[in-house]
Amino acid sequence: MKFRFEKRKVLKIIFLSVFIFVKSFSQQVIVLENADEISGSTINDEKIRELNGNVRLTHGEMKIRCDKAVQYLSRNEIDLRGNVKIIRGKMIINTKEAHYDGNNKITNCKNGVELFRNRFHVIAEQGIYFSNEDRAEFKGKVEAKDSVSIINCEELKYFEKDEKAIALKNVRVSNNDKSMVVNSQKLEHYEKNGLSKFSIKPILVQVDTTEDGVVDTLAVSSEIMDIYDDSTQQMIAVGNVLLAKGNLGVKCKNLNYERANEKIIFTSEPWLWYENSQISGDTIIAKLKNRNLEQLEINKRAFMSTLNDSANKNRYDQMSGKKIKLNFENKNLNNISIDGNATSLYYLFDEGRSKGANKTSGDKISINFLDGKISTIAIKKGVEGIYFPEKMIRANPLEVNLEGFIIKEGKPTIKKIIFGEKN
Question: Among residues 159, 237, 242, 152, which one has the least CA distance to residue 197?
Answer without folding.
Answer: 237
